[in-house]
Amino acid sequence: MLKELILEGQNRYFDSEICQNMPVSDSEIEELCKSMKETALKNTWQDSEKAKIKDVTKNTLISWGVLKDAEGKIYPTNAYALLTGKMPQMPVIQCGVFKGTNRAHFVDRREFEGSIQEQMEAAYQYVLEKINMGMTIMGMYRQDVYELPTDSIRELIANAVAHRSYLEPGNIQVALFDDRLEVTSPGMLLNNVTISKMMEGYSKPRNPAIARAFAYMKIIEKWGTGIPRLFEACEEYGLPKPELVDFDGDFRVNMYRKVKGEFGVNGVTTQTTQTHQSTQSKKSTLSDDDKKILELVHNYPSMSQREYANELGWNLDRVKYYLRKMKTQELIKRVGNSHSGYWEVLAEVNQLQN
């Protein structure tokens, strides 16, 4: 922690420091650039958004702090070493399933190696394999659902990878208990970062070079909305509030599962969602942010998601989240395709906002 404080006082970051005694070639740099763009494309759903993804170049990596140009010579930084999986004493992600609510009895355990982005994806898929799968009825259709919000699971693990302290010797641990999913990352909160600030959306990157690379690859949200979205998602799922814990040099997030029996037999829920909710029922579920974007969609149905983001002062991922949420709630629907279509509001906005 002392080394980190010294670097912070000098406005320097461990991930942007040169990785000593590590050679790098132009072909290796090109390979990383290509891999990062492939990941960004894989994590982008709409063709119109995919077309906007630019190539990563050597200069891009230098501007992010993944490479460093010193006196005309290119050096790899610690971020480069982590993004390529070539860091000396490369950290891993440790995953495990435990019987009960403590670590006394292992059911299964795995360690994931490779680049940090590969580790993150592998750990995420591991959790999906181990949690319950249920189903709900949306109108006339059966829809499979996980017991925990999958976007939040992914973001928790990704944020742990992006914001952990790489000066600490430990590994990220992802543990699944009977009552919770627990994600623990080495490194206490940075100066001026508090749990209450995080819940309001405050973010201070510990590893800005990695954060920039992850943001480009659509792995993390760089504007600090991850924790507020986590609480919103858990509330929508009917789950207990998550718990944020800063302790003993580590930071932990607990996402609590429903108590045994609430998710149905063998993970199959009997809960159904009716095709036509009453206006009163919909109104009771609307947050202030729901109302803001719903009114904007009502007034400007042909706007693009990026235009909505600009109008609201939000980032694009946040807009996508709320539009997807309101489609699920059958408050809006998309008419036509993503290029020439428009949004249709399925309820009277003035009634929903009263």
Automatic annotation (TrEMBL):
Q: Which SUPFAM superfamilies match?
A: Winged helix' DNA-binding domain
Query: Which InterPro entries does this UniProt record tie to the protein?
Result: RecG_C_sf, WH-like_DNA-bd_sf, WH_DNA-bd_sf
Return the Pfam families for the record: HATPase_c_4 (PF13749), HTH_24 (PF13412)
Q: What is this protein called?
A: Winged helix-turn-helix transcriptional regulator
Species in which this protein is naturally found: Agathobacter rectalis
